């Protein structure tokens, strides 16, 4: 067995709204290596609000058995966007060899009166808006 098939972990991203009560179908999910701008995965959520399970490079789990070793996982950044919602990011998401992790996101709808049609996605496909703080 070679190195590329031995040290693999898995990630599923779960996107919901309304404090986790409603799954968001069609949300765009990007997975990035730490300190890189190019996504290694660009995924869409299904009707359950989940992405497909993706394989990611991980460190050998045996590293966790010896004191003084580096962290026994590799970190990734994850960004989620959906039209009509604020985008969300999670940094330093650990992926462990042989483990399937489920990463939850709870997206917040844009403010009432905001017109999602007036917003254009940025270069990564994210829909963002600065909240109105004039109350």
Compile the SSE list and pairings:
Elements: H1 3-6, E1 8-17, E2 22-23, E3 28-33, E4 41-44, E5 54-57, E6 74-81, E7 88-95, E8 100-107
Parallel strand pairs: 1-8
Antiparallel strand pairs: 1-2, 1-5, 3-4, 3-6, 6-7
Task: Tell me about this structure.
The chain is mainly β. The chain has a single domain (3-118), classed as Immunoglobulin-like, CATH 2.60.40.10. Helix content is 3%, strand content 37%. It has 1 helix and 8 strands; from the N terminus they run αββββββββ. Strands 1, 2, 5 and 8 form a 4-stranded mixed beta sheet that branches. Strand 6 (74-81) and strand 7 (88-95) form a beta hairpin. The longest helix has 4 residues, at 3-6. It is elongated, with a radius of gyration of 17 Å. The model is unreliable at 130-135 (pLDDT under 50).
Describe the main β-sheet briefly.
4 strands, mixed
Helicity level: under 10%
Number of domains: 1
- Number of extended strands: 8
- For the record, give the distance between the C-alpha atoms at the N and C termini, rounded to a whole number: 61 Å
CATH domain topology: Immunoglobulin-like
Annotation keywords:
1 helix, disordered C terminus, mainly beta, Immunoglobulin-like, 4-stranded mixed β-sheet, 135 residues, single chain
In short:
This protein is mainly beta and 135 residues long. It has a single domain, classed as Immunoglobulins (Immunoglobulin-like), CATH 2.60.40. It contains 1 helix and 8 strands.
